[in-house]
Design a protein that fits this description.
Blueprint: E1 6-16, H1 23-26, E2 38-51, E3 55-56, E4 61-68, E5 77-84, H2 89-99, H3 105-114, E6 115-124, E7 127-131, E8 134-139, E9 143-149, E10 161-162, E11 173-183, E12 190-193, E13 198-207
Parallel strand pairs: 5-6
Antiparallel strand pairs: 1-2, 1-13, 2-3, 2-4, 4-5, 7-8, 8-9, 9-11, 10-11, 11-12, 11-13
């Protein structure tokens, strides 16, 4: 069995400009987005992780920013990444390679198969807040969003879920709606407030 280059687990959260419920996931993603394109921000908090067996990644964060055309599966995406400014030089090097797709794993698959315009990796502070079913992420000059899980009426105290998905973050995604989604980095522009547009969150576990 080949030696594992890196591994991480933690919490993921996302918002995109699609109306709730985003059709990209449940159509695998062959169906059209609800608007002319899809802009999405995925933010990840690493609770436990390492690279090369020696560089710890615990407590750091990163983000993926994408813009696809009408049908995500057609490729040609704009793709960029953000690495936590709090990372030290060794952590920055490791995370930049992972986030940019050079170190394999889900970002590597996206970069190789779906991206037409890679706009690089920036180092910024990434603020993440989790309170109950609410999730908030803020990256200065790049993106901000706030989402809240859509709770089931089964009195289970749990959100609704999509299961067995092909999403890169997790096979099982909690459904959420956004009260605010703003993207102004990497040449992209999006300002949505009070639209209830689509969101997701889930635990994640990646390795390569």
């Amino acid at each position: 069995m080949p030696e594992q280059k890196w591994t991480m687990r933690g919490e993921y959260m996302e918002s995109c400009n699609c109306d709730y419920l985003c059709p990209c996931i449940y159509t695998n993603p062959q169906g059209p987005a609800t608007h002319d394109h899809c802009i999405a921000v995925m933010v990840f908090r690493i609770d436990e992780g390492s690279s090369g067996g020696t560089t710890r990644l615990d407590g750091l964060k990163f983000a993926l920013v994408i813009r696809s055309g009408k049908v995500m599966a057609d490729g040609g995406w704009v793709f960029a990444g953000v690495v936590d400014e709090a990372a030290d030089p060794a952590q920055r090097q490791a995370l930049a390679a992972i986030v940019g797709g050079d170190a394999g794993g889900p970002p590597g698959f996206i970069r190789q198969n779906l991206v037409g315009d890679f706009r690089g990796v920036e180092f910024k502070p990434i603020d993440v807040a989790i309170e109950g079913f609410k999730r908030r992420a803020a990256i200065p000059d790049i993106a901000t969003f706030e989402i809240e899980g859509v709770l089931s009426r089964n009195r289970s105290g749990e959100p609704l879920y999509l299961d067995n998905t092909g999403h890169p973050a997790s096979r099982r995604l909690a459904l959420a709606r956004s009260s605010e989604t703003r993207v102004h980095g990497f040449g992209l522009g999006l300002d949505l407030t009070g639209r209830g547009n689509n969101g997701h969150f889930a635990p994640f576990a990646w390795s390569a």
